[in-house]
Amino acid sequence: MKGQLFRGELHYAGVTLHTAASGSVSALDTLWLRLEDQGVTGIGEVRLNIGYLHGYSESQVLDNLLGMLATWDWRQTATELLAAVHAPDSALLSPSRMVLDMALHDLQARLQNQSVAAFLGASHRPAAWPTNQTLFWGSEAQMLAQAERYVERGFTQLKLRTGVADFATDLARLQALRQRFGERISLAIDVNGQWSVTQAHAAFPHLRELALSYIEQPLSPANDARLPELYDYGIPLMLDESLNSEAAISRLVAAQGALWGHLKLVKLGGIAPTLAAARRLQAAGVPFMVGQMNEGHAATAAALQLCRVVQPDFAELYGADGLTDDPVSGLDYQAGLVAVNDSPGLGVQFDAAQATFLQEFSDARC
Asked: Which DSSP string do the residues of 274-291 spell out, in sequence order?
């Protein structure tokens, strides 16, 4: 087996990414790992410039990944390497584990001529899934125009990013969305942990009137212990930034459905641990979303394949919608769905000529 690492920046057409946590983001700084074994290739992807989510800088993630790739025994099988990725004593950071896990799952599924979903046990599940769309920070006119375009394309699950301006501004925007679209849309908000407990108590009574599907991460993870104070408002609460480990999933299970979960591969370290977390939440009867950051086709396809397996209550798979220069292709967005060909692996294709080659890895003894 051998591996090749690539890097590139991805851009959207007509969309500016801006949240309270990230600030304005001009491009997605992305790594791709291509593995090859027996003439078959698998692709993994991870976005580097999301330190605001997990706390790791681009250089930390890249150095961590390079250190692992340089010491791998490339004579091992994909199954053996995947076990090493998720070994309890592994020094891998979660984003490094994600790209390795994804590439190994894609490779294993392709070697068996199966989709990743089928490889993970799904049978005869549609190769498409409904997804929400996010409304990022911008003027109210921009927000309404973007929402109109989404609804025209059949995407009626909308989530507004809040917490950049004051609450009065956020509330006015939510009311404008309800006035424009009424019950044609399901509406949620993502606070990205920007409210204090006092601000949350002040906001929730106003939000009850808007029939929100859920409020995502109203408090910072440091204030998780105060979340029960918000239960009586009757609006579902979904955690995102707080869910970054098995221990965090255990705390979510202990809440017995009072809190919902937003599972992301980059937080939990890839397909395998995210699948395990989803199974735990399903067994406990906890509603959850399979989602992602703004990411390219490969990472989005991995989340979609996972949706085909676990059939989550919600999905956030908009990441690749509108990208203009992704070296990976294969997803299609229409009628409120994201679809992929039901072909082996993730169902996507990687064009190395559109990315910047960094380094090749193999066993010199082979």
From this structure: HHHHHHHHHHHT--EEEE
Residue whose token pair is 């390795």: 100
DSSP element (H, E) containing 199: helix 197-207
pTM of the entire structure? Answer: 0.96
- Nearest partner of 33 among 343, 328, 261, judged by Cα: 328
**Residue 212, pLDDT above cutoff 70:** yes
Domain ranges of the chain: 2-114+356-362, 128-349
Angle of helix 78-85 relative to helix 94-111, nearest 10 degrees, comes to: 160
What pLDDT, in 10s, does the model give residues 332-365? 999 999 999 889 999 999 999 999 999 999 976 5
Q: pLDDT tens digits, residue range 174-186? A: 999 999 999 999 9
pLDDT digits (tens, 9 = 90+) for 132-143: 999 988 889 999
Q: 3-state SS string over 19-65?
A: ECCCEEECCEEEEEEEEEECCEEEEEEEECCCHHHHCCCHHHHHHHH
CATH of 128-349, one of 3.20.20.120, 3.40.1010.10, 3.20.20.70, 3.40.1280.10: 3.20.20.120
Q: What is the C-alpha to C-alpha distance for residues 292 and 73, in angstroms, rounded to an integer?
A: 30
Beta bridge partners of 25: 17
Any bridge partners for residue 129, and if so which? 338
- pLDDT, tens only, 46-81: 999 999 889 999 999 999 999 999 999 999 999 999
**Are 102 and 271 contacting, i.e. CB atoms less than 8 angstroms apart?**
yes
Which tokens is 91 given?
């020094």
Which DSSP helix (H) or strand (E) runs through 152? Answer: helix 140-152
As its CATH architecture, domain 2-114+356-362 has: 2-Layer Sandwich (3.30)
Distances (CA, A) of 309 to 241, 284, 315, 316: 23, 17, 12, 15
Exposed, middle or buried by CB within 10 Å (0-12, 13-18, 19+), for 53?
A: buried
